[in-house]
Amino acid sequence: MRVAAVSAHFGREVEPCVAKVEAITADARAQGVDLLVFPDATIGGYLGGFDPVHDTGLPPAFPADDAVFDRVAAAAGPVVVCLGYRESAGGRFHNSAVALTGDGVLGRHRKVHQPAGEVAAYAAGDAFTAFDTPVGRLGMLIDYDKTFPEAARTLAGDGAHLLACLSAWPASLTNRAPRLLQDRQSRLFDLYDCARAAENQVVVVSANQTGTMGRLRFLGQSKVVGPGGDVLARTWAKAGLAVAELDVAGEVARSRTVLSHLAERRPEAYS
């Protein structure tokens, strides 16, 4: 199968965001992509900064059944598409992700772990749950979620062979480097992607925003990582599509033939 991670900028205006999703999805379908992962905050962009002085306003919020997702589903057709948005639910707001095809919604995730500044804008999710899709069992992580090994491990333990990681991951705010690839957050972003794949022996499809929002400068660096922690495709700092072709179930099974990390855990020793 072919899996792809999007590296692109998505701003505040909803119509241009949806039009970009439709265009990128059409391109991916033409390339035979089966799983397409967009960044965090695909529809309406991310927060503009982690303080009210530099913020550019909150992203627009949508209920889970908003008509905007019907357009995405129509564009997706047979492709499994994962994308992020600000969800409104019962008077609260969540940083959320949805996975869907033309046949409807396959699964959802609300971001659990929140960095400084997000608490005022989002309520935290409370679960990591994998779900079945036409490309295999899949779990989603949003941004800071992947910093915590327990998040990806929970999804792998729930049977996920694929992890879709949707990010709006910026360069360091406190120690800016002259080039993005020299930034310490750039190193950490790649490290977490590869570590989460290798320690769980799964495929990680990691998408990230590019460009800027307020005082945030996003890293790009979207990639596909194999179950051995090896980067199979990447975009570096520019916009683009990281596409890899692989037998997900076969690669995961091979990686676990001699050493199976999940099966060889010793939970009684970890307390």
From TrEMBL:
Protein's UniProt name: Carbon-nitrogen hydrolase family protein
Matching PANTHER family: CARBON-NITROGEN FAMILY, PUTATIVE (AFU_ORTHOLOGUE AFUA_5G02350)-RELATED, NITRILASE C965.09-RELATED
Record has Manganese as a keyword: no
Domain (CN hydrolase): residue spans on this chain: 1-248
Keywords, sorted A to Z: Hydrolase
Record carries keyword rRNA-binding: no
GO molecular function: hydrolase activity
InterPro entries linked to this entry: Aliph_Amidase/BUP (IPR050345), C-N_Hydrolase (IPR003010), C-N_Hydrolase_sf (IPR036526)
Alphabetized SUPFAM superfamilies for the sequence: Carbon-nitrogen hydrolase (SSF56317)
